Amino acid sequence: MSSKITIIGAGSVGATIAYTLSNEDIASNIVLIDINKQKVEGEVMDIAQGTCFRDPISIVAGEYEDAKGSDIVIITSGIARKPGQTRIELTQTNVNIMKSIAPQIVKAAPDALYIIVSNPVDIMTYVFTKISGLPENQIIGSGTILDTARLRCGLSEHFKVSQKNIHAYVFGEHGDTSFIPWTGAYISGVSINEYYELAKSLGKDVKELDKEAMLAYVQKSGGQIIANKGATFYAVSKAVCKLCGIVLASSDSVATVSSMMHGEYGIEDVCLSTLTLVGPNGIQGKVPMRMNQKEIEQLKKSADALKEVIAQINLD
After folding, report:
1. Is 174 a catalytic residue?
2. Which residues form a coiled coil (predicted)?
């Protein structure tokens, strides 16, 4: 596939995204940009020296102007979350970084689709949407794609079934107010509860699902990984590369990405994750998913929590 992807930020996440992309047939040109010139050059050299084992690919350390002609720009810049620190505590520092990056990269690549990965990702997506001047369809927050992947991993381990057979999602903020709309969660075409009964009838040794424990697993995984090894970057990189593949494909796909809400579920002027149609033209619109009233209220609670943070940040 002949496409150009620029990554802003060569920290653990940005560099791992570049490495993961270099191992897949998603991009033929990768540009990695970081304020730390020495580090970005080292990352590119390390990655490039492994590309002899694949079809030719160009990967370079560049400046903002080198992003010209990019199909996708991925923004990962920001201060990393420290052990015990919430994503929201990072907010103003990373907002300021985003404000310095946006005009420079948008000038170089005004037609690219932008994938925002920097945390807190819903706030960063909102900020970029407000200050970039780009059409909203070009701006995609990575949102709860990673949370959804964690959910499917947990359900797969619990029910001993392939993740490919699981259609369950995490909605809301990528953070503490996220939730699982179980009303729309299915395994092989049947609801979670029905699948449990089916598995038992087939003689499988499965336990009834503790849904609260599963949500805790999803929400606490990132913090646990950070406590154990200092950062999370493998799974989020795979999730972002999957998203790159989606937007470079010939048709649309449904994903839990973060984008601006315009009255869906009664929510306005905030970015969070619900089922969204995404494809080569970016965000195509929200896909209404069946949810009960409690789940809709949980989504509104998540939106309100994000709005409280937005009200406290300086966008000027």
Report:
1. yes
2. 289-316
Residue of 112, 174, 219, 279 with catalytic role: 174
Is the pLDDT at 272 greater than 70? The verdict is yes
Q: Are 196 and 299 in contact (CB under 8 A)?
A: no
Nearest C-alpha neighbor of 210 from the set 248, 158, 136: 158
Residues 160, 291: one domain? yes
Kindly report, residue by residue over 18-36, the tens digit of the pLDDT: 999 999 989 999 999 999 9
Question: What CATH number did the domain enclosing 299 receive?
Answer: 3.90.110.10
**Feature table: binding site for beta-D-fructose 1,6-bisphosphate:** 152, 167
DSSP labels, 52-99: GGSS--EEEE--GGGGTT-SEEEE--SPPPPTT--SGGGHHHHHHHHH
Residue 281 shares a structural domain with residue 172: yes
Domain presence at residue 315: no
